[in-house]
Write a structure and sequence with these properties.
By secondary structure, the chain is an alpha/beta fold. The protein has helices at residues 12-17, 19-25, 35-39, 60-70, 83-94, 105-116, 123-129, 142-154, 169-182, 196-206, 264-274, 283-296, 307-311, 337-346, 348-353, 448-455, 468-476, 486-505; strands at residues 51-55, 74-79, 118-120, 135-138, 158-161, 186-188, 213-220, 361-366, 371-372, 375-376, 383-389, 398-403, 423-429, 433-437, 444-446, 511-514, 519-520. It is globular.
């Protein structure tokens, strides 16, 4: 081993701090003790281990954390606003599999990593106090992604952010800019981009197998089966839920009225009046039933939940279990609906394969949006959006249609629409069609002649043989290139979010978009939906 002096020493911290330069530093490998010298076969030297902090670990964040733990990365800190929920999630993972009596070794490793990590409820405190963090995983509700990722990058941390990258178009552009300025390694959590299917689709489409593509359709059944939408907002605790009186309810009769004073006809009329009439069922009846059920729920934050930190930059909405845990995705203060949840897994393939860029216009329509303009309920149960993309070189313009909530395209072609995990897509070319399932998997080519041509297309893109999170971790250490960095993820996210912007602009109200200027040109008021108002003290910078 070559001795180190002050001029040649490379610390583990310096090595992983700048992933873009770490690969070059591998040339100085003699200065770092080889793993086999320290600990035998399979040992990972501390200089090759990433110190990771995970923010938001009750749901998908625990999945991300588990992948990193099993790969040998070091979880130095975890941050969550509701550790009671986190521990329930962890307990679920520790349950023995069916037919077994003990937890799996993998779940026990996860438990050990969780127990060892420092615990924080405020990510700002964590970034300030925990000095050994190299990289941060963010898997919180959507409205917190932008501010957390921006502050982490400015603190010099590599960042992995669950999809959607941000809550607003403005924040997406901000994160892309900060990533360029700080030169940290970034990744959005759309794991399909690292999988074989998405890469094969790009190769097949790029080879011209289905010809020029002018039409794309993409769909998901979410939010159905997952979280509620199309419902009214719960009343504030100080206000009773709105109820609709049941028509025909019995009215009090005067005590002085006696049967002997009435004629037989009058008695019959009174009986008819006093009969209980079944209520009429309408959507108002359904809404009122939901409001009554909401009013019966506990509306005090459960022990351990820091609701103020859950809100973060969002408006001051009173706690209700309809928002947390998980169902936040359906509410406009916290999430960006089904297109924000699944767009990154389903729009990614045509965006990449066709080099779409940003749209020139978007128009959206939906089922009714409950509430009033000043007090919107959850996002509509289902929506559709149509995007127009300009020609790119010799490639023609493209019309892309999005459908969610169970809606599907009405195509005249005799092809099977994939529905795995509730979603799929189809690219319509002038020589054939390509369908794919969620994450770009199971691509199918029609007709048979085109499918035969597709099989002969060579594989030209690099393949990623590790999980998406590990690809990022390797990139942080200079061992790989990140699959979906923010300079790619930000415009993809912008496309997703513009569907929500168009919906908020008005039913079937086309927005014309100046992408270079990040500006809606025909409806000036709709520009407010490209950004957001931040609660005091929470602006991302």
């Amino acid at each position: 081993m070559v001795p180190e002096d002050d001029d040649t020493r490379i610390s583990r911290r310096t090595f992983v701090r700048d992933g873009s330069r770490a690969a070059a530093a591998l040339a100085l490998a003699p200065m770092i003790v080889p793993r086999h010298v320290l600990g035998g076969v399979g040992y990972r030297a501390p200089s090759r281990t990433l110190n990771v902090a995970c923010i938001g670990i009750g749901g998908m964040g625990m999945v991300n954390m588990n992948v990193l733990v099993q790969a040998g990365e070091n979880i130095v800190a975890v941050c969550d606003v509701d550790f009671a929920y986190v521990e329930r999630s962890l307990a679920g993972r520790l349950r023995p599999p069916q037919g077994q009596t003990s937890s799996t070794p993998e779940s026990l490793r996860l438990k050990e990593a969780y127990e060892k990590a420092a615990k924080y409820v405020d990510f700002r405190v964590m970034l300030e106090q925990q000095k050994d963090i190299d990289a941060v995983v963010i898997a919180t509700p959507d409205h917190l992604h932008g501010i957390m990722a921006n502050l982490a990058m400015k603190a010099g941390k590599h960042v992995y952010v669950q999809k959607p990258l941000t809550y607003s178009v403005h924040e997406a552009r901000l994160l892309a800019r900060t990533a360029r300025e700080t030169r940290v390694v970034t990744q959005m959590g759309n794991q399909g981009h690292s999988m074989e299917g998405s890469r094969r689709i790009k190769e097949i489409v790029g080879a011209g197998v289905i010809g020029a593509v002018r039409e794309v359709h993409v769909w998901t059944d979410r939010p159905q089966r997952y979280w509620p939408q199309g419902i009214p907002r719960p009343a504030r605790p100080s206000k009773p839920a709105i109820t609709t009186p049941i028509l025909g309810a019995p009215a009090a009769s005067a005590a002085a009225t006696t049967a002997s004073a009435m004629s037989a006809a009058a008695a019959a009329a009174t009986a008819a009046t006093n009969a209980v009439v079944p209520p009429r069922w309408s959507m108002r009846t359904v809404d009122n039933a939901i409001l009554r059920a909401m009013a019966e729920d506990p509306q005090t934050p459960p022990p351990g939940l820091r609701w103020d930190l859950f809100l973060g930059p969002a408006p001051d909405v009173p706690y209700h279990p309809v928002y947390h845990p998980f169902s936040w995705r359906g509410w406009p203060e916290f999430g960006v609906s089904a297109i924000g949840d699944m767009g990154a897994h389903l729009l990614d393939q045509p965006y990449w394969a066709l080099d779409l860029g940003l749209p020139t216009s978007v128009i959206a329509s939906s089922t009714p949006w409950p509430g009033t303009p000043g007090n919107l309920g959850a996002y509509p149960l289902a929506m559709t959006a149509r995007y127009e993309f300009a020609a790119r070189g010799d490639r023609p313009p493209v019309t892309l249609s999005w459908y969610d909530g169970g809606l599907l395209p009405a195509l005249s072609q005799d092809i099977v629409l994939p529905r795995k995990d509730g979603g799929g897509g189809v690219l319509v070319g002038d020589r054939g069609y390509l369908t794919y399932e969620t994450y770009g998997e199971e691509a199918r080519i029609y007709p048979e002649a085109a499918a035969a041509s597709a099989a002969a297309v060579p594989k030209t893109l690099p393949r990623i043989d590790v999980p998406h999170e590990i690809n990022w971790a390797q990139a942080c250490k200079g061992e790989a290139v990140a699959s979906c960095p923010f300079d790619y993820a930000a415009p993809l996210t912008e496309i997703m979010l513009l569907g929500v912007v168009a919906l908020r602009a008005g039913q079937s109200q086309r927005i014309e978009y100046d992408a270079p200027g990040m500006r809606i040109t025909n409806l000036p008021d709709a520009n407010a939906y490209l950004t957001r108002e931040f609660r005091g003290g929470w602006f991302p910078g």
